[in-house]
């Protein structure tokens, strides 16, 4: 548990950024606070409470869907804007990220900035090609996949804060899905997969993205491993090929719960299930009505 001397309650985003500019030894942002249990033995002078700055909105603006970094995962799971087949993977990931009490505490931004191997929402966000708005001395938008090439905390400078997650509305005939393998519905994932697919008018795959979680310490962009689907009519045999390729080529990290061989096998199965569900949703007549 972190040792802390005081709390700071900024009234504006600028005040929060100024407090955070001192660096993590001096000040850390706090919203849900659930990741603090993993900082045993560490200390910081102050926590900066960012939950009162209006960053909990979930809305569509200027053609993009904007999710505030302080939106609770339960609210993300229930958001009507994420109910379409093309975006529902994020709602599914948020709904599986722990018990109701945990989902009411964890924020979307916190699940990214405090990423753990078993974190669920970032996997769906990667498959949906999300971008992140970072506020600070040099405000910028950054692709989530770029931010997750290393641990997100290492990509944020002192005085910077994730404020918004940005998603493009899906095209017609787009489907998505998040599938997680764990001992219970709300347990830490052994493997997880999120997929988004787009079908053309002939029912062939026009675009596909695939992300794997929990197999390694950071998310895995497995889109290249699903490339056999592109420009093809999706069949069971083709999905089996993708699953086998993932099993053969993925290199899981060590997990004290299971062997790496087991992780490789179930990663392929989980990915196949996510792709199959996303394809089924994309094929619905009213897919994005």
How would you characterize the overall build of this protein?
This protein starts with a strand and ends in a 7-residue tail after the last helix. It has 3 domains: 47 residues, Uridine Diphospho-n-acetylenolpyruvylglucosamine Reductase, domain 2 (2-Layer Sandwich), CATH 3.30.43; 110 residues, Uridine Diphospho-n-acetylenolpyruvylglucosamine Reductase, domain 3 (2-Layer Sandwich), CATH 3.30.465; 109 residues, Enolase-like, domain 1, CATH 3.30.390.50. With 289 residues, it is α+β, with helices and mostly antiparallel strands. The chain has 9 helices and 12 strands. The strands form 3 sheets. Strands 4-5-8-6-7 form a 5-stranded antiparallel β-sheet. A 4-stranded antiparallel β-sheet has the order 9-10-11-12, with helices on both faces. A 3-stranded parallel β-sheet has the order 1-3-2, with helices on one face.
